[in-house]
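User: Second chain of the day. Same drill as before.
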Amino acid sequence: MNTKYIDLIDQTYEFPQEEFRLRDSNLLFHDIDLMELVYNYGAPLKFTYLPKISHDIQRAKSWFQDAIVKHNYQATYKYSYCTKSSHFRHVLQEALKNDIHIETSSAFDIDIVENLKREGKITAETFVLCNGFKRAQYITNIARLINEGHLNCIPIVDNFEEVDLLAEEIHGDFNIGIRIASEEEPKFEFYTSRLGIGYKNIVPFYEEQVKNNDRVSLKMLHFFINTGIRDNAYYWNELLKCLKVYVKLKKICPSLDSLNIGGGFPIKNSLAFEYDYAYIVDEIVNQIKLACDEAEVPAPHIFTEFGSFTVGESGGVIYEVLYQKQQNDREKWNMINSSFITTLPDSWAINKRFIQLPVNRWHDEYERVLLGGLTCDSDDYYNSEQHLNAIYLPKYKKDKPLYIGFFNTGAYQETIGGYGGLQHCLIPSPKHILIDRDAQGNISTRLFRQQQRSEDMLEILGYAAIDENEKQHHSEPLSTTKN
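Assistant: Same format as last time:
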């Protein structure tokens, strides 16, 4: 009988795959021996494989360049990275090696941009696209960046007041974009996105607030779909509606020359994942060109904002199975030495799927299991609802440690999980390892951050200076007043 875990994978998926293969019974990820990482650093362990970031950026650039050449598209393509997917310095530095641009979403993002400018990673040629609802500090920081000469900073207007707020703090002329409040997918809880300005209001908004304002030039229309770029009727219908607005605006606004397509590409969440990126890009470029040719307006420069696609597939996390609990006749719970709520918050918050595979023991017999985290919360688990299929792993054996990996976890998990801060049930954040590869293909690893210590959490909670506080409390009693 085919009872080994490798047999199960072979009969279910095409294996090995581009990023996954075996050496003996151990899993390799981009030829990185994951068990060697465990031996060197222990588990739980998070890692970021930096070369994957550049690899995926270059893939997207090549798809758009091929489509531009094929359709004789008379404008350029610019790749932007959404910093909210991962703000880490090592991520931004790797991404910026590839002549890309930046999309921000909050005031502190501008501080990161200025830091990278001082390091020479961002230049005056780098577009900084400022999205999001803009509170006072965000407006101030955007104005500071523009006032200091970064004219390629383009605030994307999200509501009717932002142009006036920006004009109050920016000294000279400046460019803006406008975000379309697209209609959400029919099954979504809301009908219209909370962000941006509605389709029917964009042209009147331009005519009332921008057209006769000598200081402001409209350069960009921003189109964003919450569910991402997908080959379905909903996406293509919203794109066509956006293009109708673009050509209508272009006829009355000569300065408008760019279309920003937000929403992002999906990333691989299963060994059976299929998505024809090249076809989708080709069709997007084709649709934009057809709409502009029909309206007899110049085709716009195309910007994309890719966050998860940029960094998602570079990340992973490795856990050890600590113990197996047989809770009833059907349920075997493999307990990991960390928490899904704290390290993979999307797995419980939105039932997001990640690629989940054992790191070792691929030639052992397998069993069906559920995976549980360490917290006392009933939601701290990862099961077949997220994984789509039942979870099978090599059989638990107390004397043969089992390690499991979750892959393509590089986007959002650290920031949503409150990296470096308090964690649910005070479960510490794991070690974080950075993995790189030199021009000769040699792999190097370095420790980015140690596992979170109890002292770190106690300081946040106010316990770190307890002795000093108690001394002060006893030496300075509260005053009393007699009535």
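The chain has two domains: 5-50+312-461, 71-306.

User: Great, on to the next one.
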